[in-house]
């Protein structure tokens, strides 16, 4: 029984078992309701299918809070996947500070963490894969200046405190319009909150105060973009009477752009973000070196260019191709 041949066979068998080990990768979004996160999910599922087709056994676990302001629930999800000893975690932190300790604890427990979409005030994660959010906001600001001919009153409806991605967009927008003294910022201290409902209420409040003065409005993500467009329609200021620029390509916003209620959308590539999140984690688990920062790109979509093939794929991602209903 202890022959050299048996030892060789046993070693080969054990090597085969090791090779057959399945990577378990948890993908944790900020929320699960908005279309942006469904696109992230589709990208992660695409990566899972591709890795398995190459013989790299991989299973993703998709779970996140329902609402994008539920920090406690997201922390619980991270802690749960840490205790389950996932091979790795791909996280979109909904708060740049609140998620620092859970990520540190995961890494200390031997579960590597990769951050997507929105940055974390930490150096514990192995990579950050996201849009250049400041650049996206700056693009929106430059487009607003162009739409207004370099003069007018502008509102910035912010998203929520602690969201690093939207804060970077807001800062980019403000820096772009600061270069033009004839552009006056009349409101920038209102927050839409995590849902379309809270965004709609905030939009109504700001328009009740400034609706007769405003010439242009910027919203830094999907929920406030949809909410503000509706609030503008309610007071008869949509259709270009007030120039509006939003962020992200949910179906409602794309329809608003097509109908002329939005003049531009700054669009990310969430499918690519989810895909690269899982693929980069898999590379790390295979012992490969990964980049500390990966930029997934950002573009400005208008009524004039929205039918171009590359823009159409971004604003109508093939979710059904990768997600099982």
What does this structure look like?
The protein is α/β, with parallel strands linked by helices and 325 residues long. It folds into two domains: 4-131 and 269-296, Response regulator (Rossmann fold, 3-Layer(aba) Sandwich), CATH 3.40.50; 133-267, Rossmann fold (3-Layer(aba) Sandwich), CATH 3.40.50.2300. The chain has twelve helices and twelve strands. The strands form two sheets. It has a six-stranded parallel beta sheet with strand order 2-1-3-4-5-11, sandwiched between helices. Helix 3 (71-83) packs parallel to helix 4 and helix 5 runs parallel beside helix 6 (164-178).
Strand order in space, largest sheet? 2-1-3-4-5-11
Radius of gyration: 22 Å
- CATH hierarchy: architecture of the largest domain: 3-Layer(aba) Sandwich
Helix and strand run: HEHEHEHEEHEHEHEHEHEHEEHH
Please give the alpha-carbon distance between the first and last residues: 53 Å
Q: Got a strand count?
A: 12
